[in-house]
Each structure stands twice: as C-alpha cells, then as structure tokens.
Design a protein that fits this description.
The chain has a 3-stranded antiparallel sheet, with helices on one face. 22% of the residues lie in helices and 57% in strands. It contains 1 helix and 3 strands. The radius of gyration is 14 Å and the shape is elongated. By secondary structure, it is of the alpha+beta class. The protein has one domain: Dodecin subunit-like. The longest helix has 15 residues, at 17-31.
Length: 67
C-alpha cells in the first residue's frame, strides 16, 4: 500500500504560467522523491504600469512516501 503526502508550493516566472509551473515542478523534483502529480490551485499575475510583469502559480504537489 502506498501512502502519499501533498505539499503546497508557489512558483513565479516572468515568461508565462507554463514556465512558472515547470520551474516549480523542477524545483520540487530536486527536493522531493516520487513526485506523482500536481494540481494548479491558483494563478495570478503581477502588473507593472498596466503590463504583466510576473506570473505566479500556487500548486499542490503529491508525492509518495518512502517505506
């Protein structure tokens, strides 16, 4: 039987939401073992002078705990 844990992380990018997700998952995979899925909980943008300056995602990352 596998037991999983969920960790919430936030990631940002100046390029896109997709890049923020990729950067967040790349970093999660450096720290966590057995990452299996991610659920994008929130997306938001920061503005500077009316233009988008940064994309942010908050995601829930699921990983399987070691035996």
């Amino acid at each position: 039987m596998a037991v999983a844990r969920v960790s919430e992380i936030s990631a940002t990018s100046t390029t896109s939401f997709e890049d923020a997700i990729k950067q967040g998952l790349d970093r999660a995979n450096q720290t966590l073992r057995n990452v299996k899925s991610a659920w994008i909980k929130e997306q938001q943008v920061r503005l500077d002078g009316g233009s988008i300056s940064e994309y942010q995602v908050n995601m829930l990352v699921t990983f399987i705990l070691d035996d």
